[in-house]
Amino acid sequence: MISEKIYLASKTIEISEHTNYIELTNRLCYYDDKNLNNVMLPYEGTEESAKEIAQTLVNMPLQAKYKKIKNKPDFGGHELSIDKDGNAVWGTQSIGTHTKVWISEPEEITTISGENKKLPCLYAVARVWKRNPNIIAAIKRLYTSENGLNSSWEVSVNAYEYSNGVK
Questions:
Q1: Which DSSP letter does residue 113 get?
Q2: Could you read off the pLDDT of 20-46 as tens digits, one per residue?
Q3: Distance of CA 118 to the CA centre of its chain
Q4: Fewest CB atoms less than 10 Å from the CB: which of 6, 79, 102, 122?
Q5: Which residues pair with 57 in a beta bridge?
Q6: DSSP-based three-state secondary structure for 138
Q7: DSSP codes of every residue in 3-27
């Protein structure tokens, strides 16, 4: 079976602090409309399977690459390289785990085309361990920055279809 990775973007909407970790509440994506990569995750008509699939994120690691950018705590990208044997090597580390996932009732969203629509959204709560103060500093700095704390995530798919240029 051929598998492909689809990349999506998310935004942290809330941070809560605890003794040993911080929790990030992220809106991972909305359903039933395309993203910037011309990818759409279907929900209408697939509600039960979408909910089951969403739950597979629970206990999945949160990966990051800490960097200083312009002398400020920040994050890199996927940091992918290929070793001498042709194997993919990721330069990220596990910084936490997803603990809760849910799909919201349709809510007001501004899509990438600028339309306002009511769409269901995928949310996740992630715990980030405080044992790495550099990671925590980067998260807090980016969360309060003008652009906010954003991240990317990927979905492995075994089948998809194209319709009007949207995967």
A1: T
A2: 999 999 998 899 998 888 888 889 998
A3: 21
A4: 102
A5: none
A6: helix
A7: -EEEEEEEEEEEEEE-SSEEEEEEE
